Amino acid sequence: MTAFHRTVLSTALLITSSIHLTGFAQPANPSQGARPMMDSAQMASHREARHQKHLNDLKSSLQLDSTQESAWQTFSAEMKTPMKRPARPQPAEMEKMTTPERIDKMMALKSERDAEMNKRMTATKTFYASLNPAQQKLFDAHTHKFMKHGPMGHHDKMRP
């Protein structure tokens, strides 16, 4: 290969890689490419839509009767309410505290999270009690499917 051909080949490779890196090279089928980055508002909207779909699927599979509709409304309203996440203390604030004060602060934050979880668990148990045995079996299967995904939807990666 001559120096001229190496130069042409190097230039072609450089142009090809720069096109790819700048995003001009798109996959033929966009659904096969990587998903575009989402900002926090888009992520929240996507999460909310996915959550609503899960609730709709659950309600549809349960085939609720009119006497169960009120219990469903209470349950789904609680499940739609975003969990309040207590603000983490700033590092500067934590540095000023003694170890027992830090422990107390962390325990208070844990208590707030636990209270939020308890509201959801109570709503779930109350709704579950309104279901007939066949519906309870469907509910058990549906919720088990999502609970086995583990934290943040990671299929049991965090569990031994």
Q: Describe it for me?
A:
- Helices cover 66% and strands 0% of the residues.
- The chain is an all-alpha fold.
- The protein has a domain at 69-152.
- The longest helix is centred in the C-terminal third of the chain and has 31 residues, at 99-129.
Could you outline the blueprint of secondary structure elements for this entry?
Elements: H1 3-22, H2 40-62, H3 69-80, H4 91-95, H5 99-129, H6 133-147
List the total number of helices.
6
Radius of gyration: 26 Å
Structural class: mainly alpha
- Percentage of residues in DSSP E strands: under 5%
Low-pLDDT segments:
12-26, 154-160
**How much helix is in the residues?**
55-70%
Task: Characterize the biggest β-sheet.
Answer: none
Task: Provide a brief overview of the structure.
By secondary structure, the chain is an all-alpha fold. It has 6 helices and no strands. Helix 3 runs antiparallel to helix 5.
Features:
single chain; 160 residues; mainly alpha; extended; disordered C terminus
